[in-house]
From TrEMBL:
This is SDR family oxidoreductase. It comes from Spirosoma agri. It holds the Pfam family NmrA. Coiled coil: none annotated. Residues 2-279 form the NmrA-like domain. It comes from the Bacteria.
Amino acid sequence: MILVTGATGQLGTAVIRQLLQKVSPTQIAAFVRDQTKADHLVDQGVIVHVGYYDDKISLDRAMQGIETVLLIAGTDEQNRVSQHQHVVDAARKAGVQRIAYTSRALKDPATLVNQLMQGHFQTEDYIKASGLAYTLFQNILYMDAIPQFVGGEAVFERGINLPAGQGRVALALRSEMGEAIANALVKNDQGSTTYRLTGSESYSFYDIADALTKLSGQSVVYSPAEPATFEAGLIQRGLPEVMARRITGFIMDIANGQEDLVSPDLERLLGRKPTPLYEGLRLLYTR
């Protein structure tokens, strides 16, 4: 049986949707915080456990009879390392055979500007030290995040103004990452495995601007911003300084080439080429 944590989040939903096409729903369990958001899973025959990463009793209960746990990274960035450790500890205590984790694909964790990303690699280290067989999914930035980065529909009027420089990202759709993860979970890998899930090509924000121009028929221009100016603008718009610094650091890591990684793993797990930039943006902007 496979237990998916964070099962009603966007990635968890994508993974379970694919798992339901590959195995019986009685072989899938979901760990969720809100029962009402999981009613549709119950209706499909998925076993649902309610609890929190900080609630060790609920974790112990959810682990019973589980062979593989997919730990989807928590959203509480300040506390998620300890929360992830609770999940790993519960899995080990229950005799789970394998733990999988959704980490991040970044070129050099030692030189990150956004230090909160270090939590992913601390979690990886804890998993490796647990003695459990593991599958690590090092995921690139979701293509689905681009509308949020560039201001949604407003991008067609304002253009793109970010401190990303010439930085490139091998963007991939979240739905395809979910499909690849599900495929890996049912493969029964032997030993421990690390997959780096990226698109087949990396793109700059100049490429994104060109794709949006072709998509809309309106000229979209990317103008690289200075980090300090960009951060000050976020604060002026009402964002707390900590959040503004975090967002700026995240984009500066792109400028520094942290996400300019291309791996064949996503293509191999999908059995086809991942969706390229223009086609992906067309999907995202026509929903």
